[in-house]
Design brief:
The protein is an alpha+beta fold and about 250 residues long. It has 7 helices and 10 strands. A hairpin with a 2-residue loop joins strand 9 and strand 10 (about 225). It is globular and about 65 Å long. It comes from Catellatospora methionotrophica. InterPro entries: DUF899_thioredox (IPR010296).
Length: about 250
């Protein structure tokens, strides 16, 4: 699903190449400072202490699965905690969690650094397991519904947590983040931030006349945007549901 949302929109001021280069160089200095500060924060993140996670299981394709087994033999684990609306069709599932997780298609670089990526869903495994199949996800999917309070510890779904496994198969939590911290997964946002019109969302500080999307930032025509490219999704106005049989 696409929309011509920039037709007739305002554009930046037109200047000669020399003037443009000076403005770009001034911004580049700020970008480099931002990169160095990000590197410093990442260095501090690597120096955080860690905390032991008691033994806990999640539900997967093989039934109860220990957190250690979710690592799939690797040393590190990144988990996205996916919200779930019980009994709802695919188009009514969390658009924010869909937006975050749909970006995680290429896992080779994580695996090359001894990192497993997995999703822990709020719903039951029986109900939610067909969803990643519909979405075409290639990462492992589990239900963490019965794993609270050990894993969530008072936090909510819609977060990222990172874990480390030691030589004795003890698991430790090393980091977690939520809200805009989850943008670490969303490469589309990082790419859009490079463009002149940005994300086109209402909260952004953009010049007057810049295009803004209508409606929800992660939905198009009533369903999470990423679902429109999935096989079997009916066009707008059709009575056929993509969730038939689920």
């Amino acid at each position: 699903m696409t929309a011509d949302i920039v037709q007739g929109a305002a554009t930046p001021q037109i200047v000669d190449r020399q003037t443009w280069s000076r403005a770009r160089d001034a911004l580049l200095a700020r970008e480099k400072a931002h990169t160095r500060e990000g590197d410093a924060i990442a260095a501090a993140r690597r120096r955080l202490p860690m905390t032991l996670v008691p033994p806990v299981t999640v539900q997967g394709p093989g039934g109860e699965t220990s957190l250690v087994d979710v690592f799939e033999g690797r040393r590190q684990l990144i988990v996205y905690y996916h919200m779930w609306h019980d009994g709802q069709p695919w188009e009514n599932q969390c658009e924010g969690c869909t937006f975050a997780t749909c970006h995680m298609d290429m896992l080779d670089y994580l695996h090359a650094r001894d990192v497993t990526y997995a999703v822990f869903c709020e719903g039951t495994y029986a109900e939610s397991a067909p969803f990643p199949e519909f979405m075409g996800y290639r990462f492992p999917w589990y239900s963490a519904r019965d794993a609270d309070p050990v894993l969530l510890d008072g936090r909510g779904f819609g977060m990222i947590a990172c874990y480390l496994r030691d030589d004795a198969d003890q698991v430790y939590e090393t980091y977690w983040t939520t809200d805009r911290g989850v943008e670490a997964l969303t490469t589309s946002y990082h790419a859009l931030d490079l463009t002149v019109y940005g994300r086109q969302e209402r909260w952004e500080d953009s010049p007057e006349g810049w295009p803004r999307i209508d409606g929800h930032q992660w939905r198009v025509d009533g369903r999470p945007t990423a679902q429109w490219s999935r096989p079997g999704v009916a066009p707008t106005g059709s009575a056929v549901s993509c969730c038939a049989g689920h």
